[in-house]
User: Which sequence fits this backbone?
């Protein structure tokens, strides 16, 4: 089995733990941290899957996802400050 | 040889991503969680993309067939650069916002209040 595919499966397992922080987190700040980590793991998983499937389109999607999740996280941070 | 190098780089990257998720799950408040997730996640992602770079450059051959591997490497490096710029910045924004909104760190020691309570 392709080692990149195995690492993609392991990253998906890590993503489950990170989403559990979004579900469990006692305060909204903790949920935002979990969401940020999940976004990061999604980007890396897309790169791994793009290499495993020999498909460059997935890596292009990862670039766009990185920038869009950055904008979303900044919006959430400005909401937490109470300035939304 | 190249396969072992790729596996070692993937192992280092996965280990640091695992440490990041473990810290996210175990640490008590938002600042320590950001500390664990941001640093270890960024470091692990650097090694995972480095494995992709080694994989693509090892399979490089001149001609039109080898071009797809170079495209793979270049796009992965661009994705890594986007991630290296955006992830620490967004973590900084989250920590600043949570400090402004009044989230105090757990374990903050206030010796003056303790002395007042004892007297």
Assistant:
């Amino acid at each position: 089995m392709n080692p990149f595919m195995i690492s993609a499966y392991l990253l998906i397992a890590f993503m489950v733990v990170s989403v559990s922080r979004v579900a469990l987190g006692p305060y909204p700040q903790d949920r935002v941290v979990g969401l940020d980590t999940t976004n990061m793991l999604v980007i890396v998983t897309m790169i791994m899957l793009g290499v495993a499937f020999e498909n460059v389109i997935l890596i292009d999607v990862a670039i766009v996802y990185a920038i869009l999740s950055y904008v979303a996280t900044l919006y959430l941070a400005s909401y937490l400050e109470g300035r939304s | 040889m190249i396969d072992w190098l790729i596996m070692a780089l993937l192992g280092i990257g996965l280990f640091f991503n695992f440490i990041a998720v473990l810290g996210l799950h175990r640490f008590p408040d938002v600042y320590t969680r950001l500390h664990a997730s941001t640093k270890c996640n960024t470091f692990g992602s650097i090694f995972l993309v480095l494995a992709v770079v080694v994989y693509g450059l090892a399979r490089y051959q001149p001609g039109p067939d080898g071009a797809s591997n170079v495209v793979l490497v270049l796009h992965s490096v661009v994705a890594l650069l986007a991630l290296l710029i955006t992830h620490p910045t967004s973590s900084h924004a989250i920590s600043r916002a949570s400090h402004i909104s009044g989230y105090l760190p757990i374990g903050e020691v206030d010796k003056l209040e303790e002395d007042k309570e004892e007297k």
About this structure: The radius of gyration of chain A is 15 Å. The first helix of chain A runs from residue 3 to 24.
